[in-house]
């Protein structure tokens, strides 16, 4: 069997981190909101950002999976290449799966009138405006961004240690400070917000693709040179 | 015989620190070799480089006639069990073994099951709940059941008692007889393994100081003991590798040589005792003298 597939199988064994924990977190947030909905007997529509939790969780998982699995896999004679391919494959599969599940929940939410209490947890205005394909791609790309961003940050740590992370976040801070300063100095803020505002949620998610490509390439290059 | 490991002038340095210095050696196929030396001598670093987990600073390294870095054909033939191996903390013992089964082409599931029983490992216990000795057993099972053409054990039995270590040696020898492969073993417990080693390499401060057939090493030194004055007379012009210190007028010197007939005769005349020196004692004397002797014996 292809070694990258074997790496994916290895990840699949970590069922708790990949499949149980994120949904327990998301669904407990959902249940709390639902409970609040019943308390208010559905008079007022409730909009909540509880959906963010699963994205935040996957960012963390992207970081953790490298530290937990890389040393194990390399120690068992897996090529760095195969580890990278298998782990990326896992990211793609899980992202797609989550996107489909989230859309299913959104479907139930709209057909049940917000679970009977006008709760908007999975189906939100603006975010879920596009066609079904667009919504799927939006979730899929957003999820991949989270995974690979976490993966890249972790690969910087694996490759260059604490010092590398320090430099990375330092550089990021400088970059953002300069950016915001320039925006303020030249009065670009209105243009920036206008630019964001004129795009659909799906359109914006497509604009993150160049970043995703950067994460994918950088993490690959670092993992290729990481030692145990 | 073909060379499984072929290393030329291998050096690894971290800034100014030189961990491995200009090491060259080769290992032929189907041999059991020992890579011995003190803590921090560079044994683990060499093993990491053989398996491409670390990159050499300079030098040439070929495993099965190829470079190991990102080389699937080569890496597939290697199983490296190290004391510091990390396992996913949420995995159960059988998760780890299942993963290992998919990664090593020669994996023998029945053998793995037998070992699991022999080492008394709970299949369903999570890795993070295992004791140090159990964790070592997991590594040993992977190393043995993988039947990799090049199997490397780096201090494989931390926390294991003498019974479990014996179990390991017995299984190793038994399985090696049925399925010959190249085994590279690094350990402190030189006395325990010296009888199964065919080739002995000793690393001291990053340098290879001995690379010999175990048999020729066994007879390569002897100790002479008796009255200090007589011993002093005896060791004139001989290569003494320890620092003889006298105790109540008596002393003992270790001489790097095979005792010849005249030596024995001379010792007899002086009333001195000639005894053989084990590989462990020899290595202790060669790599650090008496103070280290205690450390090794305590291990």
From TrEMBL, chain A:
Key words of the record: Membrane, Transmembrane, Transmembrane helix
Keyword Membrane belongs to the record: yes
Membrane-crossing residue ranges in chain numbering: 20-40, 46-71, 83-108, 136-157, 164-189, 201-223
Protein's UniProt name: Uncharacterized protein
Source lineage: Bacteria, Bacillati, Bacillota, Bacilli, Bacillales
Automatic annotation (TrEMBL), chain B:
Record-linked PROSITE patterns: ABC_TRANSPORTER_2
Keywords assigned by UniProt, alphabetized: ATP-binding, Nucleotide-binding, Transport
Domain of life: Bacteria
One matching Pfam family: ABC_tran
One annotated GO molecular function: ATP hydrolysis activity
SMART domains in the record: AAA (SM00382)
CDD domains to which the protein is assigned, alphabetical: ABC_DR_subfamily_A
Domain ABC transporter: 5-230
Keyword Magnesium: no
Coiled coil spans: none
PANTHER family: ABC TRANSPORTER ATP-BINDING PROTEIN ALBC-RELATED (PTHR42939)
Protein name: ABC transporter ATP-binding protein
Biological source species: Pullulanibacillus pueri
